[in-house]
Amino acid sequence: MPVEPLTASPVYESRAAKMLREVFDSGRPLTYIRSSEEQRVARVLREVSLHLASTPTSVWTWTLTEGMRRDGRTAEAGTQSPREALDFIAGYADAAIFHLKDFHEPLRESAETRRRLRDIYESCRDQRKFIVISSPVRSIPEEVERSLLFIELRPPDLVELVDFLRDELALTPDPSGLRDSGDANLNQLARSLQGLTLDEARYALRRALAASPHLGPECIPALLEEKRLLVNRSGTVEFIAEGGSMGNIGGLETLKKWLTERRKLFQMRDTLSADIAPKGLLMMGIPGCGKSLSVKAIASYFELPLYRIDMIEIFSGRHGQPEGAFVAACKMLEDMAPAVLWFDEIEMGITSTESSGEQGRIFAFFLTWMQEKSRGLFVAATANRIDLLPAEMIRKGRFDEVFFVDLPLDDERIDIFKIHLSRRGIDPAGFNLPQLTEFTIGWTGAEIEQCVVSALTKAKLADREIGEDDLLSVAVSIVPLSRTMKEQINHIRSWAFERAIRASPRQGGQW
Questions:
Q1: Could you tell me what percentage of the chain is helix, strand and coil, using 3-state DSSP and rounding each to the nearest 5?
Q2: Tell me: the pLDDT tens digits for 329-338?
Q3: Which pTM does this prediction carry?
């Protein structure tokens, strides 16, 4: 099918193709792309070539081993050396894109090559001839640095991934004939692959096809598992596959209502101004009261993948300077948007205590990044040592809201008992749970869960069903955190009183 001439940007144009097309439309003849994906660069250049002029522009490829060739044809004679390749480009009469692979080495080592490239820069301007050097490393000599436009190729976006999936599936046999190749299904699969290179996406797709040849929604877990292995390889970012739900959280009704409202806004984010589009929230409070569980529930409720930045790994030194590792992790996650990004115990890694040191620079970057990051990234930060958080972190506008998660109230503790009993296949209706409230005053959600686990263990050891007496006997023996750390918890409450919104509605005048 012939390609129709395009006079404007195509509707479905990938981010990478749009960027390169605009570079070429400006008339700039030399571009240096840093990317390890040579095949992807070639794919993008072919896409760009279709939209540069009224007729498709030819794409030539040069390698040190094969010379200059066009569209997979036999290489042109006398084009194997770098100098010969540049001479061929200089003498070529028509508009074209020349993709030079392996060219960073001769460019760095040969003064003659650098001189010839500078000559071509002058002769190719406004001639619709474009030279693209691709390399996995940045190696640009000073002599040509001002003549080249350097581009760091970001991971493929949804448009590129959908096109890739469509091409891959066309080459993959479908014996059953039941494979769903509709746009809706391909978009869902592409979202699961965001953040991966096309090579990584290809292997993830093959893993999914092995799990389900139909390639429907049921193969999403296989895609996500492959993605988890690839993302976790970075060492600083962890893909959290374990989900949660709002139904597994007892209480915190104010937080739940706020999330319901923000979910609607998040889904409309591309049509909203930057001031209204949700950025994220900060949850501070007493350990064991459900902050981490709430973050997992947010990701499930928003129907987004969840990633966690490991600040211990960032500062370990195993991934280079902490500042650089942190910046790279944040940029990597922007390429995976839409997603939920979890900063666990944020006060331990991002502080302004050393304003002139590494932590101070990380803190400064984080504050700026929170204002400028991708709209598709929802940040969920949690903190226990809230008194360590600087004022700049919690001021209005940095996060959409700051919540304080306190010890659960009477009704909330009953709900938490019901949740943990139900999760373990026990009917809560067989227990008089309200009578437990007087024995569990000041308990955290984690302590309630441990009470259920201990009572169940006790019953199993006695080879009988769990009963109310088991819960009561365990409850009277537990010394809650609120008693052993009373002064610290009172300090946390008083600190948060005027700085945060309570995640649960007040009862009986309680804070």
A1: 50, 15, 40
A2: 888 888 888 8
A3: 0.74
Residue 159, token pair as written in the block: 């448009």
Q: Domain limits at 440?
A: 410-478
What is the edge-to-edge ordering of all strands in the sheet holding 339-343? Answer: 237-240, 306-309, 339-343, 377-383, 280-285, 401-405, 501-502
Helix (H) or strand (E) holding 218: none
CATH number of domain containing 440: 1.10.8.60
Can you read off the two tokens belonging to residue 381? Answer: 């930060």
Rounded to whole angstroms, the Cα distance separating 74 from 86 reads 18
Go through the chain and tell me how many residues it has.
511
Q: Is 27 strand, coil or helix?
A: coil
pLDDT digits (tens, 9 = 90+) for 214-271: 777 777 778 878 878 888 888 888 888 777 788 888 888 999 999 999 998 988 887 8
What CA–CA distances, in Å, run from 182 to 165, 170, 202, 217? 11, 13, 19, 12
| Under 8 Å between Cβ of 230 and 200 | yes
Same domain as 111, residue 131 = yes
Check which CATH number belongs to the domain holding 387 and give it: 3.40.50.300
| Inter-CA distances, 96 with 59, 123, 191, 341, 399, Å | 6, 14, 34, 43, 48
Name the CA radius of gyration of the chain, rounded: 29
In the chain, how many domains are there? 4
One domain, residues 94 and 25: yes
In angstroms, how far is the first alpha carbon of the chain from the final one? Answer: 69
Between CA 307 and CA 310 the distance in angstroms is 10
The pLDDT tens digits of the residues spanning 261-314 come to 999 898 888 788 877 888 899 998 888 888 988 999 998 888 888 999 888 888
